[in-house]
Design a protein that fits this description.
5 helices; two-stranded antiparallel ribbon
């Protein structure tokens, strides 16, 4: 499944974020939440997609500095999660702090994953990236 669209929600005081109804079934078999490096967002992967993405970070042998750096950078900031009966994801406090998530959040489809952003920051990033996106399209 490709995750598409952008949705605005309120994160509750306990750090729960509603999941768009179209995304829920795909996430019912497990979700892995990660830091959205290099962006300051939380990235949510269905369990199967996470394993595919993980292979990218395990490409270099662990015996190399690059291999260890990639593994630590990706896996140390990853947490298993579940969609609850009300269709919400509980974002761990460490990830909420890292992405500055509170109050209004943007839940954004990003093809094989979902990004959860501070809504204000997401609007700023979109504005900053708009010209670069258009240049990229023109370069093709």
């Amino acid at each position: 499944m490709l995750f598409l669209g952008s949705y605005e929600y309120a994160m509750d005081a306990r750090g729960r974020v509603p999941v768009p109804p179209r995304f829920r079934e795909e996430l019912m078999h497990g979700v892995i939440l990660t830091q959205g490096n290099p962006d300051r967002c939380v990235r949510a992967y269905p369990a199967g997609s996470f394993e595919e993405q993980a292979t990218v970070y395990m490409n270099q042998p662990i015996t190399t500095k690059t291999g260890r750096l990639m593994r630590r950078g990706f896996f140390a900031g990853a947490y298993a999660a579940e969609v609850d009966r009300q269709g919400r994801l509980l974002v761990p406090p460490v990830l909420r702090r890292w992405a500055n998530l509170e109050g209004q959040v943007s839940v954004v489809g990003a093809a094989e994953s979902i990004e959860i952003w501070n809504a204000t920051r997401f609007s700023e990033v979109l504005a900053e990236e708009e010209a670069e996106f258009k240049r990229t399209l023109d370069a093709e």
